[in-house]
Every structure is written in structure tokens, then in C-alpha cells.
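Instructor's aside before we start: the two examples that follow are unrelated to each other. I chose them only because their records fit on one page, so don't look for a connection. First example below.
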Amino acid sequence: MRELSSLDRWTILYAVFAQLSFLWRWPASAAVASHFPVVHAGLVGLAIMAPRLRRHGPLGEFWASFYPLILVLALYTEIGLLNRALGFSRDPTVQAWEAALFGGQPSRDWIRAWPWPWLSWLLHLGYLSYYLILSASPLGLWFLGQRAGARDTVCLIMVGFYLCYAVFLIFPVAGPRYLFPQAENPATAIPVATFTQKLLNSRAAWGTAFPSSHVAASLVASLTAWRFSRPLGAVLVPLSVL
């Protein structure tokens, strides 16, 4: 146990918190009841095994350094299944905050106020670059020989995810795309916008809209890349800003 890295310890802490949240919010769905504990118990097992894996060659070291990031989609999906089974969200509270801050609902109003295809291309490509940023930041550092930097990057990204996921478990917010009608104008008709919508329809997890793990993980990944490699960071930071 003394050989556990910071990543391993954060992973165990999150998995224990998630299990306690699951027990507190025991869902009616039998499928969630059978999968959720298994996934998070397995996560604890991987964290405990990680120090041993690090001593078993390059492949073991790579897996022990990246395992939570490889499994992050599964963790995200499990939260969505749990929240959907319970069917409770805090959307009215968050919408009231946004209305007080912006004087309206930006997620509903802005794309209708500025239905410009060129802006839609730019922002949707920025949105989709999330997947590139998450992989390019730690993998780029790893293959540049910055192994310690890559491990730090994965750890910080996962801390961002774990903190967001912890909030999702106790303060679920479905998000405006489930509550407001989708805009129909030139900005939503372009190919990248329709692709993004289809991706969200098939992959988004219910109750995981606030705070945005998409924004948090992108910023952490790009800024950490900048810390260890300015050329890599110079590519990723502008994408995160978009």
C-alpha cells in the first residue's frame, strides 16, 4: 500500500465515494444495481495492483500509468445509468443560476441569436477536440520521453474527472439539451453540428451536465501539457479555449 501513487490513491478514494453514494441512492434498476458496484470494486482492484504492474516492463508501466483514463468512459456511463434510474435532477436550480448571471439561457438563446455557420464550425470543432486533447496531452508527453510529466498529467486529469463525477453523483443535472427544443437554423444544419448531435444522442450520460467535466478535463490536460512541453501546449490550449 505504501507504493501506491497519487493517481492510485485518488482512484481508490473516488471509487469508495462512488460506492457509498450508490448505497445511499440505491436505484430501482436491477441492471445498475448489478453493474455499478462491480465496476468500482474492479477500479479499486486495479489501483491496488498498479504498483506491481509498474515493475513488469514497459507495457505494465504504461497500463499502470493510464488505466483510469482508459476506463473513464465506463465510469461516466455508469453515473448516467444510475442517475437515469433514479430520474431526479437539479436542472431548475442551475437554470436559475444561469438566468441570474446571464439574464437568460445561453444554451438556448445564443445559437438562435448568432446562427452563423462559420462560428458553428469553429465551436463544434472545438467541442469535438476534447477527445484529441485528452489523448494527445498525456500520450504526447509519454512519447516525447516525458514519462513523469505524462503520469502527472493523467493524475491531474483524473482528479478533475473524479471531482466532477463526485458532484454528478450527489447533484445530478441533466442539461439543457434534454429540456429545451433543439434549434433549427443554418448553424445547426452543417455536417459537424449534426455529427455532434448524433454523438451526444448516443454517448451522453444523463445527469452529468454540471459542472462540465468536458471543460475541466480539457483545461487541465492542455495546461499541464503546456507546463511540460510548450509546443504541445501551444496546440492544445487554443482548442481548450474553444
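Example two begins here.
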Amino acid sequence: LYAQHLLLEAGERGQAVPGDLVANGNNYLREVAQRDGNNLTDERQSAYAIYLLTRQGQRMAAEITAIRKRLAERYRGQWEKDLTAAWLAASLDLMRQDRDAESLISGTRFDAPVDELYNDPMTRDALLLFIISRHFPERLKTVPSEVFTTMAKRVTDGYYHSLSARTTLLALDAYPSATEGAERNLASAEVLKNKSVRSLTLPQGLFPTVKFTDQAAALKFTNNT
């Protein structure tokens, strides 16, 4: 699932992706999307597979109906807050079923008590931020500020593995793309030893870097939003 998502993102960014590799991967996705899961983890993966196939223009209405029926019967009160609901919401958004999509995404939350293999808190929060940024950008204003603080702390403290690092980068790539005009709202400057302020121009990019001079006594960052 994660490998197929990687290929999909790479293809959208202009990278050469072998067609037969994607086709073989999609065969596997269809098996996962159509199966009857044994637990909520299985169903979450099925919802993820449905999303990846929907991203490629495949109609997955029957699979979505089937999985929602199973979830309602077996995991009522659990799946609505889970990433499972977010993947299905994103699929419905792609299918232009806006009301159902909004209903599902509104029930998800970042502080859900999950901690399992491949669904640890850092991975889950990053994927939820990715989904909201890409498919429900109007909801970004409702994302608690603690989400970003926690994300930064996890990175700083080294609380990540290869998957959570990758999903965090995916989220941090989708977020600024969804926040129009962000580059005009962010600014940096150096405060010189004589108390004057000199602006530093941030270049474009996900992680912009700019040098400051040896005359700087302090650095100043501003955010107008």
C-alpha cells in the first residue's frame, strides 16, 4: 500500500514510473479493497486501497458501500474517529459526493488513542493532515495548533521511523500547497548589532534556507496569519 502510494505521488511529480509496476500493484490494491477484513486494522488498509484506486480514476462505489456496511455493523463508535473514515472521506471527495465526504471527515480527530504497528500517533496524524490538506483545505483553519507543535517536537526529539518520517514529509508538502499565499505571510530578518533590521529573503521550497551575516545579534520571524 505504501509503495503504491509512493509510485502515485512520484508519477504526479513528473517522475518516470513503470506502467507494469503500477498495474501489478493495482491488482493487489483491488484484492485488499474487496476483502472482508478480520479487524479494524484490515478495514483501514482496505479503505486506504480504495483511496489509492480512486485517485487513479477507478470507480469504487460498490467497495465503499460494502466496507461502510461492515464498519457500521462491527465497529460502530470506533471507525468514525479512525483514519479509516478519513480515507473513505477522501475517496468520496474525489467522487464528488461532498455531503458524505464532509460527514465522514468531520468525525475524525488528531488525538485519537491509537498506537499500533504502521498506525502510531505520528504516522496517523501526518496522514490525517495530508488528507485534510489535499481534499478538505477549508478545514485547515480548524486544525488545532497543538498538532503542528507536536509534529515539530516529534521531529526534534527523533521520535520517528522511516514510515512516520515519510508521512510527515508528505503532510508538510501538502499543507503549504493548500494554504494559498503562505509565502507572502511569512518573513524573516536579522537584527543587527546597531539595532537596525535587515530583511532576509526566503527562497521558494518546502524547507527554505537563507544565510544571515555575522553582524546579526538576533533573528526575527514574523507570521501574518
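Residues 162-178 form the longest helix (17 residues).
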